[in-house]
What we know:
The chain is α+β, with helices and mostly antiparallel strands.
Amino acid sequence: MPENLSELIVVDGLMEAEIIYAKLESFGISSMLKFESVGRLLAISMNGLGKVRVMVPRDRLDEARELMAAETNSNDENGETTDSG
């Protein structure tokens, strides 16, 4: 893993991570998903196997956090339940 990446968020499952990945990319923030391949293969979340770490460049971490916070605030205002992981 490149040294210039920092962890933005850890989520349960690849699907949620891919949604976050796509959102970041749409705002021009490159990202990388880090996960155990066996968790993806077996589609389980046990002992951390289903955890996915969303990594972003260190110099874009604050911007990515603001984007995630804005998304959370938007969901809260619409009455949706959010889980910050």
